[in-house]
Specification:
single chain, 627 residues, mainly alpha, 34 helices, 0% strand
């Protein structure tokens, strides 16, 4: 049985209203042909009260099926009621055929069309979702939640105009509907109209300030407009809470739940509405009522993690692990929380245990392999990618990730073979593009720039926004002396992926080599706004302010302001040298001379002689200038 309380996925609800929307039917015995068999879900881990409730509804359905005189409406009601309870407990595979049978008996029932449409949207079955949601709207034009679900599906299908029209219909009735504003904004973004998108997202936040995910959407829009200050401001406020909207029909499913699930679903409703403290307390009550329930522990742990209480979340997952030591999910969930808490070594160990407990579950192994690769434990990562490909040789993602690992291990031959297999196979376009990019990088490493360029251009032909390919082409252009092309390529990366410090540095370097030092300084300042903790950007900008040929760019005071925090944080010879140069540039020669002498005293034996010679020269120059 899946977890009961996935309110964020099934329940977007602010108003708890019971609505019955059953369609009409015909009198007389119900036809039995073409009805689907309803599977019996696995309930071994469910609470006894839940099992009793589901079994009672199942018995009602079975008794009506066994009675050949049962009329259409009672049989329809039995299917609908059982389907709704299955859906409330997240037993989707059993809920969907119940709804389909109800519609087979009464095709015009708008409530059932709605619930089946919501299920189909959740499962990614977009065409099915559209069909049922439209029929739900036709039968109940006042169901605004159905129109919002439909608009979200239209967005997912790339139908921006249709999503806009659907959202506008909602806004005509509810001008302050935050979800409709978000939909309108996302549709405008997909059409390139950032001004309309920003206005819509701002209205959504006015209506629902707690929807912190909207800040991320605003940051994207402002970044596309080039307003990096506004983008950074909204990124600092972003969070996981999606925009919520009233969904009375879905809410009605959770009124009569049994056991601790009832408490947890009320908590889920509080969470969606933004009342996180009440939600945490409700989950704690669920744990207190069922302390031996690992599901309750996991649900409380998930909410505590969402609210940033990572240590408390880890405690709940550890208790779930104690209660169910052989359940891989407990170890995996704990690993995710430990990772978020900045304990990567402990997280890796829990990931390993999760894979050992459930070795055939591919998602756990894939996450472990990716984390190992990121941690530099390449040999072990390769072993897991090997295992994933033994289980499924068609897994293009694992094959490409293995190619990356083999590239880092220096096994270019195996890496190239894997990359070619992905590029030439039936992988998704995005993976093919990345495979061509990897082949291009391998060619560049092997001293074949023309071949590398061709492969990278093939990658961009498949995915014009692939930042890695633009970056690699920028590097090739810079190496060939084509600094304008390099600048343009790096600029594409900084616009689409501003967190990539190397692209900012590459663009600034190209601008300096083009003689555009002022523009280089401006771009580095913008990079620091996007990445304020990135020391390499501050270091490069400080050096530019000290060594620029353009007098308007030379700025000792700004260089010192950049160099001092770097030197305090890490007194490396490089940071100390820039610090000394900046001190000299603002007239503090005595401090600069003292720092250079300190550098000479601490210069390790065997260091580059040119380094010491340069510092002695600076000491002599500064000493002469002070006489």
């Amino acid at each position: 049985m899946r977890a009961y309380s996935r309110g964020g996925r099934l329940l977007a609800c602010l108003v708890w209203v019971f609505v019955l929307g059953c369609g009409g039917g015909q009198d007389g015995p119900a036809p039995r042909q073409d009805l689907e068999a309803i599977p019996h879900p696995e309930l071994s881990t469910a609470e006894p009260a839940v099992v009793r409730q589901l079994e009672a509804l199942r018995q009602t359905l079975d008794s009506r099926l066994d009675d050949a005189t049962t009329a259409r409406r009672p049989l329809t009601e039995a299917y609908r009621q059982l389907g709704e309870r299955y859906q409330a407990y997240d037993l989707v595979d059993a809920a969907a055929p119940c709804y389909r049978n109800a519609l087979h008996l009464e095709p015009e029932a708008p409530r059932v069309h709605y619930l089946l449409g919501v299920l189909a949207r959740r499962e990614g079955e977009h065409e099915t979702a559209v069909s049922h949601l439209r029929q739900a709207i036709d039968g109940d034009s006042g169901n605004l939640a159905a129109r919002l679900h439909l608009a979200f599906v239209q967005l997912a299908m790339g139908q921006a105009e249709g999503a806009t029209a659907t959202a506008q219909g909602v806004l005509e009735e509810e001008p302050h509907n935050a979800a409709a504003q978000v939909i309108a904004g996302q549709a405008a973004m997909s059409s390139g109209d950032t001004e309309t998108a920003i206005a819509a997202f701002e209205r959504a936040l006015e209506a629902q300030p707690g929807a912190t995910r909207v800040h991320y959407l605003l940051a994207q829009a402002y970044r596309k407009q080039g307003d990096l200050d506004a983008a950074r401001r909204h990124l600092e406020q972003q969070g996981p809470r999606e925009v919520a909207f009233a969904d009375p029909i879905s809410a009605s499913l959770y009124i009569d739940l049994a056991g601790s699930a009832a408490i947890m679903q009320r908590a889920a409703g509080a969470k969606v509405a933004g009342f996180l403290e009440a939600s945490v307390e409700s989950y704690r009550q669920a744990v207190a009522n069922a302390p031996a329930s690992p599901e309750a522990r996991r649900d409380l742990g998930a909410l505590l993690a969402q609210t940033g209480q990572l240590d408390a979340a880890a405690d709940q997952y550890k208790e779930a692990r104690r209660l169910e030591p052989d359940k891989a999910l407990n170890h995996f969930s704990l690993a995710l929380v430990l990772e978020a808490a900045g304990r990567p070594d402990q997280a890796l160990e829990s990931f390993r245990v999760a894979v050992a407990k459930e070795p055939e579950y591919r998602e756990f192994r894939l996450v472990l392999a990716e984390r190992l690769a990121s941690a530099g434990q390449l040999e072990e990562a390769r072993e897991h990618f090997d295992r994933l490909l033994e289980q499924d040789p068609r897994d293009a993602n694992s094959r490409l990730e293995r190619a990356r690992v083999n590239t880092a291990l220096g096994d270019a031959t195996t890496a190239l073979a894997d990359a070619r297999q992905v590029a030439e196979g039936d992988a998704p376009t995005s993976l093919k593009a990345r495979a061509f990019h990897l082949q291009g990088d391998l060619a560049a490493r092997q001293g074949q720039p023309s071949i590398a360029k061709g492969l990278l251009e093939q990658a961009l032909a498949l995915d014009p926004e692939l930042a890695d390919a633009h970056y690699s082409l920028g590097t090739l252009a810079g190496m060939a002396g084509d600094f304008e092309t390099a600048r343009q390529r790096f600029r594409r990366v900084t616009e689409s992926t501003p967190q990539r410090a190397a692209a900012w540095l590459g663009e600034a370097t190209a601008l300096v080599l083009l003689g555009r030092e002022a523009e280089a300084a401006q771009r580095l300042e913008e990079g620091l706004q996007a990445l304020p903790e990135q020391g390499s950007l501050a270091f490069t900008l400080a050096r530019l302010h000290l060594a620029a040929e353009d007098p308007a760019v030379r700025d000792g005071a700004r260089a010192l302001a950049l160099a001092e925090p770097l030197f305090r944080a890490q007194a490396t010879p490089e940071h100390a040298e820039v610090m000394a140069s900046a001190l000299a540039a603002v007239g503090r020669q005595d401090e600069a001379i003292a720092l250079y002498r300190q550098l000479l005293d601490q210069l390790p034996s065997g260091s580059d002689p040119a380094l010491g010679a340069r510092w002695r020269s600076e000491i002599e120059r500064l000493t002469t200038s002070t006489r």
